């Protein structure tokens, strides 16, 4: 019954998105001195979530419930526009570091949502 709650799915999707974006950022930083390398990024989670057409409603856990959606959240990687770097690539280590901090905060936010939801669920069951 409690395994299919939207708040847990959303927190999981946020954490997964943050992990995948962190991997892209790490690859950009690793190739900062590679001539001709163009940096990549992943669409923001909020933009992807809003444009996925996914309804943010309760999901069905029993036959008598209204049906919800079970779609996954797709996000795509795209090439970042170069910023005129003298190394002939568009990677700015400073910008990538700021992106990495933003991603860490997104991941921490996802974990906080998950923890808070678990606490609410435990409280509703009478456990602390």
TrEMBL record:
Its main location: other. The keyword Hydrolase does not apply. It holds the Pfam family Flg_bb_rod. It comes from the Bacteria. InterPro entries: Flag_bb_rod_N. The keyword Electron transport does not apply. Residues 20-38 form the Flagellar basal body rod protein N-terminal domain. It is found in: Bacterial flagellum basal body. Keywords: Cell projection, Cilium, Flagellum. One of its GO terms (cellular component) is bacterial-type flagellum basal body. This is Flagellar biosynthesis protein FlgB.
């Amino acid at each position: 019954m409690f395994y299919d709650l939207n708040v847990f799915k959303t927190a999981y999707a946020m954490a997964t998105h943050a992990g995948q974006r962190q991997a892209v950022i790490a690859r950009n930083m690793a190739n900062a001195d590679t001539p001709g390398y163009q940096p990549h990024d992943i669409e923001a989670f909020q933009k992807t979530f809003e444009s996925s057409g996914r309804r943010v409603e309760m999901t069905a856990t029993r036959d008598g419930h209204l049906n919800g959606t079970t779609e996954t959240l797709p996000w795509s990687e795209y090439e970042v526009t170069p910023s005129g770097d003298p190394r002939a690539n568009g990677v700015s280590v400073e910008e990538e570091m700021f992106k990495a901090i933003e991603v860490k905060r997104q991941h921490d936010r996802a974990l906080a949502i998950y923890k808070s939801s678990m606490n609410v669920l435990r409280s509703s069951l009478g456990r602390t």
